[in-house]
Write a structure and sequence with these properties.
The complex is a heterotrimer of chains A (about 270), B (about 220) and C (about 210).
Chain A (H helix, E strand, L loop, with lengths): L1 H5 L3 H17 L10 H11 L6 E7 L5 H18 L2 E6 L6 H15 L7 E6 L3 H10 L1 H4 L26 E6 L3 H13 L3 E5 L1 H4 L3 H6 L5 E3 H11 L5 H34 L1
Parallel strand pairs in A: 1-2, 1-4, 2-3, 4-5, 5-6
Chain B lengths: L1 H16 L7 H40 L10 H8 L14 H32 L10 H21 L8 H47 L1
Chain C lengths: L3 H18 L4 H17 L3 H19 L6 H16 L7 H33 L5 H17 L1 H6 L4 H10 L1 H25 L12
Helix pairs in contact in C: 1-2, 3-4, 4-5, 6-8, 8-9
The chains are: A alpha/beta (about 270), B mainly alpha (about 220), C mainly alpha (about 210).
């Protein structure tokens, strides 16, 4: 029996995975979520910023990772617009990030009645990651002479008093790759720009050394981070919904690991 | 158009999921379409967000605006960049070494001092910093600080191949492996969350956006 | 010309960037800014290399009639569709945005979501506590997985998410810091070798 169990067709496992995603989606439930310290730190930092401050969000993810980072972008922007904080959107690492950034910025702006050019702006993508970060440190207009829709930066009201990172209170890097290291290395180390990160699950673990040194002021960890931030701003969204749905899949995978190991040990004992 | 978009997205999603059963023509079609469209997308974005703002605009400004004559300096990197097109000729392909060498030189030169600060000095400082506040730390935090030094030293020992891993070095290296395994275990746990997030989004699309639009 | 000039260029640009980094003089900073700007201007040309290589690969597949060569036409069709929709009017054109949002995004997202299935299958088949090290990895992964989702705190009240956070804040941090230090020392020494012309593999083969 255990031999059969160990050689089970992978497609049966696939069916189980599909079921544990579909079922909670049809019958949604909500469980309490504890807020972790790195998320709380980011929330506190943004919450303490005075109205009229400007934060920059670097959208460094693509279609292959947006389900985790998009809810973070939405939650942080909602918080900013509620507090009267302006948001500048850029993309330095992923060539396909800007349409996704445009979509989420427009959605949140419509919900919060934020005005383009006054409360938020999307400058768009520029190639050459580290050079873009360095260039903006000297002068943002030297890299972005126009925004995503080709409007000259000189015609955008909220950009009139912004020259470089000196006027940016925080850079939030929503990342699916190595851009956080780039922002820390060239933005924080060279220009003393305050950096926070919202990253996909795959790279969460490697962010902790930077968090401990203070090179990151806060960190959002994947779906969970988005859900936690939504809890803090009291606006449940895709992050909250997603992390609840993810519960059953996680239990299934833990169950599979346990069953796989029991079968393995029983078979090994028999062989001995 | 919106309904058509949802249907096309749903059909292509199912084409890709058909791979879960086994490799098949529907999956291969979607896979190749994705590659082609991604390249097309890169071409468009590189033209509009790369070549136009970086190359075309400074030269245009230098021609039209007397105060922007320095923009002509941009011709140097543009000419260097154009050497990438030498890849099209097998006889002149070696010319791409010039822009690659310049990029390697610039990025290495920029990287060395900043990486030293970010990844060496700041990380070493972060490791010993808790000891400067030892008087105000709780017993739990002191344990964490000690564990951190042990972990960092042992992990580095594991990667130190200039001495043979025997005796005390071997023991330190083994402790380093234990720390690495915990690090990789936590990375695996978080990766599961990431991959599951993608699946949830796609299933959400199929159930709510696609099937939801039918009924 | 083929070897020495690129090596000299690499050395000069590398040394200038290092020296100007440490000099606050206005001329030095202007040089730093200008050369960094040159790097930025050259960088989009790198995509030319990627695009040309991909086109050549699929063109060769069609010419040589290798296995599944017919699908290379699909690659070209997809590429031409995006170029036709985007190049004349720009990426803001509704047709380009429509293709991106309804064709490219769903396929890309779905492709990576397949990994959720394979990670579950791999966890069942290969995640075995064969040795002490493997057991450590397995136990950590299970705790982090449990702590990542709210059901974890329901099953293991007030402990699952705290245990996850402790692992990430302590042993994970130490291991990652060890890796960062090791990798950075390696990258810095490699950069020095590149600037000094000792490391030349980036020039490719040939003379």
């Amino acid at each position: 029996m255990f031999e059969k169990l160990m050689n089970i067709d992978r497609r049966i496992i696939f069916i189980f995975v599909a079921l544990v995603v579909i079922i909670p989606m049809l019958f949604p439930f909500s469980l309490p979520l504890n807020v972790s310290e790195p998320t709380q730190k980011l929330y506190d930092y943004i919450d303490a910023l005075p109205a009229g401050s400007t934060i920059m969000i670097s959208f460094d993810y693509g279609p292959s990772s947006f389900p985790e980072t998009e809810p973070m972008a939405a939650a942080v922007m909602k918080h900013c617009f509620d507090k009267g904080i302006k948001v500048i959107g850029v993309a330095v690492a992923y060539i396909d990030a800007v349409p996704l950034a445009d979509r989420v910025m427009q959605q949140v702006a419509a919900e919060k009645e934020a005005v383009y050019g006054e409360d938020y702006v999307l400058l768009g993508y520029r190639p050459g990651e580290e050079y873009v970060i360095l260039g903006m440190g000297a002068e943002i207009a030297s890299v972005y002479d126009s925004d995503f829709s080709a409007t000259s930066i000189t015609e955008i009201p909220m950009m009139q008093n912004i020259t470089n990172y000196d006027q940016i209170s925080l850079l939030l890097n929503l990342a699916a790759g190595s851009s956080v290291e780039g922002w820390i290395t060239y933005g924080h180390t060279k220009f003393n720009l305050k950096i926070a990160a919202g990253v996909t699950g795959v790279i969460v673990s490697q962010m902790y050394p930077y968090l401990q040194t203070g090179q990151l002021v806060g960190l959002l960890s994947g779906f969970r981070g988005a859900g936690e931030y939504e809890k803090l701003i009291k606006a449940p969204g895709d992050g909250t919904k997603g992390i609840n749905t993810a519960s059953l899949v996680h239990l299934l995978i833990i169950g599979l690991v346990v069953i796989g190991n029991i079968a393995f040990f029983v078979q090994r004992q028999r062989e001995e | 158009m919106e309904t058509l978009g949802i249907w096309i997205a749903a059909i292509l999603t199912l084409c890709i999921y058909s791979f879960l059963y086994r490799d098949n023509p529907f999956y291969r079609f979607a896979e190749h379409l994705l590659v082609g469209m991604s390249v097309g997308y890169i071409i468009v974005i590189t033209i509009y967000f790369g070549f136009i703002p970086y190359a075309w605009t400074p030269i245009k400004n230098a021609v039209t605006d007397e105060t922007a004559r320095l923009g002509f300096l941009t011709l140097i990197p543009i000419c260097m960049g154009c050497l990438f097109f030498a890849r099209l000729s097998s006889r002149r392909a070696w010319l791409i070494r010039y822009p690659i060498a310049i990029l390697m030189g610039i990025s290495s030169g920029i990287m060395i001092p900043n990486a030293l600060q970010t990844d060496i000095f700041a990380q070493v400082r972060g490791t010993i910093d808790p000891y400067s506040r030892i008087g105000v730390l709780s017993a739990f935090e002191i344990t964490g600080a000690i564990l951190m030094v042990i972990g960092v030293v042992c992990t580095l020992t594991y990667f130190f191949f200039s001495v043979e891993h025997r005796g005390p070095v071997n023991w330190l290296s083994k402790v380093g492996i234990a720390f690495l395994m915990i690090g990789f275990g936590s990375a695996f746990g978080n990766t599961v969350m990431g991959r599951v997030a993608l699946l949830i989004q796609r299933v959400d699309f199929l159930i709510n956006d696609w099937i939801g639009s039918i009924f | 010309m083929k070897q020495k000039v690129p090596l000299v260029l690499c050395f000069l640009f590398g040394i200038v960037m290092i020296l100007t980094e440490f000099s606050p003089h206005a001329a030095s900073q202007a040089t730093y800014k200008e050369i960094a700007n040159w790097g930025r201007v050259i960088s989009p040309f790198v995509f030319v290399l990627a695009v040309v290589t991909l086109i050549q690969t699929h063109w060769n597949r069609i010419q040589r009639r290798t296995e599944h060569w017919q699908y290379s036409f699909v690659v070209f069709a997809g590429m031409l569709a995006m170029v036709a929709a985007g190049v004349p009017s720009g990426p803001q054109h509704p047709a380009f945005a429509w293709l991106f949002n309804n064709v490219q995004v769903p396929m890309d997202a779905t492709m990576f979501s397949l990994l959720a299935f394979f990670i579950a299958s791999a966890a069942y088949r290969a995640f075995r506590a064969r040795t002490f090290e493997a057991t450590l990895l397995l136990v950590t992964a299970v705790i982090v997985m449990l702590g990542n989702v709210p059901v974890g705190d329901l099953l293991w009240p007030d402990a699952a998410s705290n245990a996850r956070q402790w692992i990430l804040d302590n042993p994970n941090l130490s291991a990652r810091r060890g890796i960062i230090l090791g990798v950075s020392l390696g990258a810095i020494s490699q950069s020095i070798r590149i600037i000094l012309g000792i490391e030349r593999s980036y020039l490719g083969g040939g003379d």
